[in-house]
Design brief:
The protein is of the alpha/beta class and 295 residues long. It starts with 13 loop residues before the first strand and ends with a helix. α6 crosses α10. The radius of gyration is 21 Å and the shape is globular. Strands 3-2-1-4-5-6-7-8 form an 8-stranded mixed β-sheet, sandwiched between helices. The chain has 11 helices and 8 strands. The longest helix has 29 residues. The mean pLDDT is 94.
């Protein structure tokens, strides 16, 4: 069957999307490229009026169908939850009555603990494989989506202890075929790592740019801002709603890391105020060494 990824046990060709922004749209682009004959349905949460972005995706040939009823997702082999983190959990409760016996549920959230807890409470652990494509842009929305966002990106999977192996394998095969690098881990490890490398940096970036904004009473700071400030705060142009959801969903891991960061920042402040040349050199040398070795 040309265009389909196969394991020994399952072939999937009916895909559903709840949420269809930059990441959901990019995954749908990859699905359409890999499986040109597949059926891809997306949910129109407006219900009583057309969803312009979804209509554009259908006109582009990415979507096969737009539905205003989640009961239409009962025919899906796999459902991708691509709304903000907390919204995905709310939709899970609505979707549960319509999930077919062999349907896979996955998400794209940057936090995994809360959705794993919700899955357990709903009694659908067997259906779930948590997912996190570690890609994106300060740009948002379907109009900016493209399968290229998955190329060479890490895509983490967090199956439950009840997830059938073939479900995880199917997703792993898809991820690799889409050009991403797949990592499989438990959700607690995932949330600790992403707090440090993704969630806290967004708070740090936002705090820095907000501090500069308070100082900028006449516009001279923004007028003279060059590469340094722009580079370190680029991610502050991302969706505020998304990052609000993420911070509310992973507070313990984020707080723990920020406490360590504040301690490090305080050490740096003390080195500057005391004129500790050796300490400052060590700070910059250690940072350069680790940064230069990042993938």
């Amino acid at each position: 069957m040309k265009g389909y990824i196969m394991t020994e046990q399952i072939i999937l060709k009916n895909f559903g999307f709840v949420g269809f922004g930059l990441i959901g749209g990019s995954i749908a682009h990859a699905l359409r490229e890999l499986y040109p004959d597949s059926h891809i349905i997306a949910y129109n949460y407006y219900k009583t009026k057309p969803h312009k972005k979804l209509e554009a995706a259908k006109n582009d040939g990415i979507l096969s169908e737009i539905s205003t009823s989640l009961c239409d997702f009962s025919k899906c082999d796999i459902i991708f939850l691509c709304a903000p983190v907390l919204t995905n959990i709310a939709y899970l409760k609505e979707l549960t009555p319509y999930i077919s016996d062999k349907c896979i549920i996955t998400d794209v959230g940057s936090v995994k603990g809360n959705i794993h807890h919700a899955i357990e409470k709903l009694g659908i652990k067997r259906h779930f494989v948590g997912g996190h494509p570690m890609t994106g842009s300060e740009k948002t929305g379907y109009a900016n989506s493209d399968s290229s966002y998955l190329k060479n990106a890490y895509y983490i999977l967090t199956p439950t202890d009840e997830t059938p192996e073939e479900y995880t394998l199917w997703l792993k095969n898809f991820i690799i075929s889409a050009g991403s690098r797949c990592e499989i881990m438990d959700y607690e490890t995932h949330d600790r790592i992403t707090a440090a490398i993704s969630h806290a940096p967004h708070l740090i970036s936002a705090s820095l740019i907000n501090t500069v904004a308070k100082e900028d009473t006449d516009g001279s700071y923004s007028r003279l801002a060059a590469g340094g400030l722009k580079d370190i705060t680029r991610i502050s142009s991302s969706s505020p709603e998304m990052w609000q959801n993420i911070c509310l969903s992973n507070p313990d891991a984020i707080t723990s890391f920020l406490e360590k960061y504040i301690e490090t920042l305080t050490d740096a402040k003390n080195a500057v105020s005391s004129g500790d040349a050796d300490k400052l050199m060590k700070i910059f040398e250690n940072a350069k060494k680790y940064r230069d070795n990042l993938n």
